[in-house]
Amino acid sequence: MADLVPANREAVMEWLKEGEDQLDWSPHLKYVAALEGGGVTPSQLADRVRHKGALGNSFYLVEEARFPSVSLTHSMISESLCSTGLSEEQWHQIPRQCPLDKMADHTGCFFVVARKKK
Q1: Sign of CA dihedral 51, 52, 56, 61
Q2: Cβ–Cβ contacts within 10 Å for residue 13, how many?
Q3: Which of 41, 95, 97, 107 could be bridged to 56 by S-S, CB 3.0 to 4.6 A?
Q4: pLDDT tens by residue, the chain, 118 residues
Q5: Name one Pfam family in it (predicted).
Q6: CB within 8 A of 43, min separation 6: which ones?
């Protein structure tokens, strides 16, 4: 799904709006839910994924259509991890790599490693 070809964008948009022709991601969601230790159902995970964005992102574009997005900060993500029983082990942030006039207004991307608290 990394390719930004129209068919892939359409497939993601169909999944985001829970359309009739959406791809079945349930095997992947079940796998990730199991990795999270059974504290979340695949359905809850899908809802969570549908409503997340990149750091500082308030919108993104698909061709000429502009869509709102949730603007995240490091502290928001850390607090969310903590409230779900996880501790942040590693945080890596990279600054925005694409021109400011392209596709979204995020300030960067992040990678986080979290561990279930003992």
Answers
A1: negative
A2: 14
A3: 107
A4: 445 567 777 777 788 788 777 878 888 888 878 877 777 888 888 887 776 666 677 777 777 777 777 778 889 889 888 988 899 998 888 887 766 666 777 788 888 888 888 8
A5: NNMT_PNMT_TEMT
A6: 29
